[in-house]
Design a protein that fits this description.
By secondary structure, the chain is α+β, with helices and mostly antiparallel strands. Helix content is about 70%, strand content about 10%. The protein has nine helices and four strands; from the N terminus they run H-H-H-E-E-H-H-H-H-E-E-H-H. A four-stranded antiparallel β-sheet has the order 1-2-3-4, with no helix packed on it. Helix 1 runs antiparallel to helix 4, helix 1 packs antiparallel against helix 8 and helix 2 packs across helix 4. The longest helix has about 70 residues. The two termini are about 40 Å apart.
Length: about 425
């Protein structure tokens, strides 16, 4: 393949990299959705969080249930020989403890809030795993594209070396030029080997996130589109208010408030009712009823201390909510600016830097072939173009990864 044709391919590749075709974006979106769905279904951490969520739901019924009633059997005046058949008094009864009015409803509300918190923790983990899968996928796309770029430049360099050898035969090039070009080619080949190893690591990360400990072959990714980011900062901040993380902090506050109300009722005693049937020798059988309540008046300091702790827990929950809200808003603001900066930089790469690098490479080629320039200048121009193309590919990868991180923060997929 001639050098001119290779340069044409590089230009065409650059043009297509500026706007990935829609069908490629749809294929990548479909493939990525399948990977995310598999991870949500089989990721070990998510399985653990689902079990925790389901267990919290079951505790709602337990929180409202009364304590088990107690069956009481009493035998009085047992003879010294231990013969219980000769007791003079026998009774059998049942006892049940009833919580003070309002305690059971508060316990039910607390259990419901704990169930909501467990569900929100699960949702939060879902978005964390989703973000990790997407980031790993975009990294895999970047590595695949990087290998393709290096192979294109390796082909270009091979043609360059072929020209240099022909010029060396007719004494129009030095041996040093050949050595420099061979070194550059070996450097590219080493980088390709390194990138191929990185692909294996990125592929393993995706499979581990999907709960798969072994896999046969690397995942073949699809090209990813680079659409403009259309969301505004105000819209993203509004989304944050409904994020699982912030809603979880709100539920913690509500739970601590209910806990405080329950503790205030603890000084109000529960009461126990008992009903017994008594059989007395020589007397008529009879029924007996009893009632018991604990005297909490003697434990006033204990309940005062509990109330103080509950009040401090409420203050902690409020402060924690404010801290999480501030932290999330700051992260949203930072990611938004970083995404916009990448857009601006990529636009400058596409419109200015890479076209200039392509032009410089063509000028260096013509200069070398006409004897007006040296090989090192040509190699340097080729390396500059490759570096710029790699930087552009990395920026596009970071663009997608930061959007995935943004989705994790707001707990919602962000349309572009």
């Amino acid at each position: 393949m001639k050098i001119g044709k290779l340069l044409i391919l590089l230009v065409i590749g650059f043009a297509f990299s500026r706007e990935t075709p829609l069908f490629a974006s749809e294929e990548a979106r479909s493939q990525l959705s399948s990977l995310v769905a598999a991870a949500i279904g089989k990721n070990p951490e998510l399985i653990s969080f689902r079990a925790k969520r389901d267990a919290a739901k079951e505790r709602i019924i337990q929180a409202t249930a009364l304590d088990d009633p107690q069956l009481v059997l009493t035998l009085d005046h047992i003879p010294n020989n231990g013969d219980i058949r000769k007791t003079h008094e026998r009774s059998i009864g049942i006892e049940q403890i009833f919580p003070y009015y309002g305690k059971r409803s508060l316990k039910q509300k607390i259990a419901e809030l704990e169930s909501e918190i467990a569900d929100l923790e699960y949702q939060e983990k879902v978005w964390e795993v989703t973000s990790s899968v997407k980031s790993a996928y975009y990294q895999l796309v970047f590595l695949t594209k990087s290998i393709a770029l290096h192979r294109e430049h390796e082909s270009l360099l091979s043609e360059l070396i072929s020209i240099a050898r022909k010029r060396y035969v007719v004494s129009q090039s030095s041996q040093q030029d050949l050595l420099k070009s061979d070194i550059e080619q070996a450097r590219l080949q080493n980088k390709i080997v390194s990138l191929e190893r990185e692909i294996l690591s990125a592929n393993a990360e995706i499979h581990i996130l999907m709960g798969e400990r072994s896999h046969d072959e690397p995942l073949k990714t699809k090209p990813v589109a680079f659409p403009p980011f259309l969301q505004t900062l105000d819209t993203l901040k509004e989304m944050t208010l409904q994020s699982p993380r912030l809603k979880k902090a709100q539920r913690f506050f509500e739970k601590n408030r209910k806990m405080s109300q329950l503790i205030q009722k603890e000084s109000n005693p529960d009461f126990m009712l008992g009903l017994y049937y008594q059989s007395l020798d020589g007397e008529e059988d009879q029924w007996m009823a009893t009632g018991k309540i604990p005297l909490s008046v003697f434990s006033r300091k204990k309940y005062q201390s509990k109330n103080h702790v509950a009040h401090l827990d409420e203050e902690e929950a409020i402060a924690n909510y404010d801290a999480i809200n501030d932290e999330t808003l700051f992260a949203i603001h930072r990611l938004f600016n970083e995404i916009k900066a990448i857009e601006d930089q990529t636009r400058n790469d596409q419109n200015e830097l890479i076209p200039l690098a392509l032009q410089a490479l063509e000028v260096a080629r013509i200069s070398y072939q006409t004897g007006k320039g040296d090989l090192l200048n040509w190699i340097d121009s080729e390396r500059t173009l490759l570096d710029l193309q790699m930087e552009q590919a990395m920026k596009q990868t970071l663009f997608q990864q930061k959007i995935a991180k943004m989705e994790q923060l707001v707990g919602k997929e962000i349309s572009q």
